[in-house]
Amino acid sequence: MRKALASLNILGVMSLFWFVGATSTSALTFSSDVDISFTFNPTISLSLSSSDLIINNLAPGSAADSNEITVTVSTNTAYGYTLNATVGQQTNYETRNLILDDYSGSSSDPIFTSLAYGDSESTLATDNTWGYAFKTSASNAPWSSYSGLPLYSDSNNVTELIDTDSAAASDYVTFKIGARAASTQAGGEYKNVINFIAVAKPEPVTLEAAYRAANKTKLNGYYKLQDMDSTICAAVEVIDDQLQVIDTRDNKVYWIAKLADNHCWMTQNLDLDLGTPTLTHNSTTLYHDDTDLGWGTDTATTSWTPDKATITANSSGSFTGWSDQNTQQYSADPGDWYYAGYDGTTLLTSNTINYLTSTNKVTENGVTTVYDDANHTNAYFKSIPFTGTGTSNNGTHGHVGNYYNWSAAVAMNDTSSYSSSTYANPANNPQNSICPAGWRLPTITSASPAYETEGSKDEFTRLAKLYAGYSGNTSLSSAGLEASPLFFVRGGAIYTSSLNNSGNRARYWSSSVADSPNAYDFYFSATRFYYPSTLDRFYARSVRCLAR
């Protein structure tokens, strides 16, 4: 119930006017407060077209149906409701069976046995059994098969007649029962009670509501990436709903969402500059409390100091000081660019041009746009004007972010110890990463369960299955991967000091080792999906994190 109160004040001033030698005049006014209030009550009601379900004149050795009743639900709730049914009651009928009216309460009383809960029969084929059937108002199909109801006290089983998330004012089902009698069954009136229960649904839990319910505090008006945990993610009921949160290491803002695989993901590329003092500790060292260090099975590694700072792109778009190394940590910042086709409305085709290093650039009002040709037909990437300390990425879904070789992505300065194929068992792969605390790198594995299955360790590929229809086909449109709610970016990769295939291919690191020089990544172009994909660890690729 919500109650709102308002006050209406009528203000006045008491005045006394006195004139010497003249007739006195006085004026008196008063003030009064008037309360205004209203009450809003979400309501739900249930009505039946008849109070009884009756089978008249059931003949020995045959089956018959009862009359049909209409069960109507009315509600003003915005989030829908459920209508369930059970059988029995605590006083006279603590059973799912129909009992002869003059029963003695003994096990030998004549009964009609309920069909088993969860079972259904197209017709009542067994003597001395009964079941129910129903159809919804939206269905003109024939009656469904007969089924068995759970007992009123059976909390483990639920018979849902209606389950709706809509705000419909009313809905109904048509309901009946049926029974079959043996020729030797005792005659008489058999009884029980069917219960209909309508329950209004509460407002579904969003990511923001889950953070709030966990009593998390905000920083600069945003909940924190580092406060995410499995309890918060599990509480979220609204799938694909986006929330902006802040990374306490540098106060950059990112989008996150709970996706259809029931994981919470960053839906924006990581943009953490390595070798820069963090706001959390004013140190280039990353620690357990703000970074994914010591949260997995490797509990001993709770800090990491990058041996090389992030390299910033020069005016020609290359990275001075870059070296292709499998055993050293490198990362690169191409500048604050976002993908112009990320929103699903103008997804752009694959092309071999490197758009972020293209000469087809136009700068207006501080924003640089890279086009796909000299005629400026389509905008591929745009620069983001710097808007203040720590907010250069502007919390934009399509932000390209930074690029990290695999050693940098897994927060190690030397990954040469990972020399054999261990991806089939995620526990054998690096357990740390540069993701925020509470988050980690996704895994790629062909071990059971596969990507078709909920809980798959092929976590990137599971998203391709759910959002782009991937089923082993390499010819696959990237539209479902680049549009809402995933917003993956075809940002390319860095090697030989240069950014390659930007605008053409998307490459995202996993934590999964392939062999001595290679690791697994998530790899697609506009028209093709590459799986499983491996590449040398010295290539710098994008990073997305998901909640632990």
Topology:
Elements: E1 2-10, E2 15-17, E3 25-27, E4 32-40, E5 44-48, E6 63-65, E7 69-75, E8 81-87, E9 98-100, E10 111-114, E11 120-121, E12 129-136, E13 146-147, E14 160-164, E15 170-180, E16 190-191, E17 194-200, H1 207-213, E18 223-224, H2 230-235, E19 242-247, E20 252-258, E21 264-266, E22 286-287, E23 303-304, E24 311-312, E25 331-333, E26 337-339, E27 361-364, E28 367-371, E29 379-383, E30 403-404, H3 406-409, E31 439-440, H4 459-468, H5 479-482, E32 493-495, E33 498-500, E34 505-513, E35 518-525, E36 529-536, E37 546-547
Parallel strand pairs: 10-12, 18-19, 24-25
Antiparallel strand pairs: 1-4, 2-3, 5-7, 6-15, 7-15, 8-14, 8-17, 9-10, 9-16, 11-13, 12-15, 19-20, 20-21, 22-23, 25-30, 26-29, 27-28, 28-29, 31-37, 32-33, 34-35, 35-36
Helix content: under 10%
Largest sheet: 8 strands, mixed
Mean pLDDT: 85
> What form results from the Cα inertia axes?
elongated
How many beta-strand segments? 37
**Beta-strand percentage?**
25-35%
End-to-end separation in angstroms reads 37 Å
Q: Would you tell me the structural class of the helices and strands? A: mainly beta
**Alpha carbon gyration radius:** 33 Å
Whole-number tally of structural domains: 3
Number of helices: 5
User: Low-confidence segments, ≥5 residues, pLDDT <50?
Assistant: 1-23, 388-392
